[in-house]
Amino acid sequence: MTSAISSGPARIRSGPTVGLLALTITAFAFGTTEFVIVGLLPRIAGTLGVSIPVAGFLVSGYALGVVIGAPLLTLVTARLPRKAFLVALVILFLACTVLCAAAPWYWLLLVARIGGALAHGAFFGVATVVATTLVPESRKGTAIAVVFTGLTVATVLGVPLGTALGEATDWRMTFWAVTLLGVIGLAGIVTLVPRQERTGTASVRGELAAFGNRRLWLALATAAFGHAGLFAALTYVNPILTGVTGFAAGDISLLLVVVGAGMLVGNLVSGRIADRRPAASVVATLACLLAVLVVAGWAFQSPVTAIAALFGVGAAGFGTVAPLQRRILDEAGDGGRLASAANVSALNVGNMLGSLLGGVAISAGFGLVSPFWVGAALTGAGLLLAVFAIGGSR
User: Fold this and answer.
1) Which domains does the chain have, with CATH numbers?
2) Which terminus of the chain has fewer CB atoms gathered within 10 Å of its CB, N or C?
């Protein structure tokens, strides 16, 4: 599945931790850029003279760029060595982030956001593949989780700090700060990640060949439906906390840190589980998310149980990521780079599907907590797909 590293096994053992750290720092920069825009929207709209709904395209446009960019950039650069591809993606991301910081017009900012999103999706696809080459076979799940830790820490620290910086100074300063983080990550990748050799199947045909595997398609569908359940709930957690649980609007930022802390814990724990039982971990984590979503609808009636439910939703939701990503890589074989990128797209398709259907349920009059039931149904569908796929492979 993974390519050899040119300097041999000794190079792999010499410092995988620092190589993973470089990937994680860069992932933190990507994650902060993606999510911090939500807290900065009012200031950006005011500065550039657009309405809040129009400024909202900076969020949805980024998500669409991730979905498209992950497989597209990965496919057209199939013959490029993995490390060179990583470096190119981070350079593209840095250029777009600088353009975001300097953009004098809204449309230029939107184009820069979409450009950065194209790099975002492809980065997480190839970074997880590279991460698995830095560790023994038995620790692949942990390596994937470590890379995604950058994304989870971005939600806990990067987003609130970036928002606070933008509020205290100017929203452009947040993008300059992310640029600095990206430069640090790029320097780490260049110096600490071993050079990756191309394999004989490193071509468009070789990458596409993996998609002849029916189980790979089932794994991608599992990821999309399973993750859709998480975002059906998370998208509307703000109005649920204020309209159902009774928290004040000023409490929301601190409560979202609880969600982020849960994501961090769930991500790291599930990585270890994925190492020990790769296939079973997919079923176990999806079943855990399903149970949490079912219980959360009642838990949000009380402030104390709501806080516990927030942590549980974050932990169970992001606990699915490493097992799902490892499952994709195991099924893809030598076509792992494109399949890994396709999984990033599948997760984001799930995000959009969950958000859409959760909103439909509220609009239909089923109540503010109805997104939890929608999420449970979506994750349940993902769980059934996982059981069917794993049972069929056996």
Assistant:
1) 9-198 (1.20.1250.20), 210-393 (1.20.1250.20)
2) C
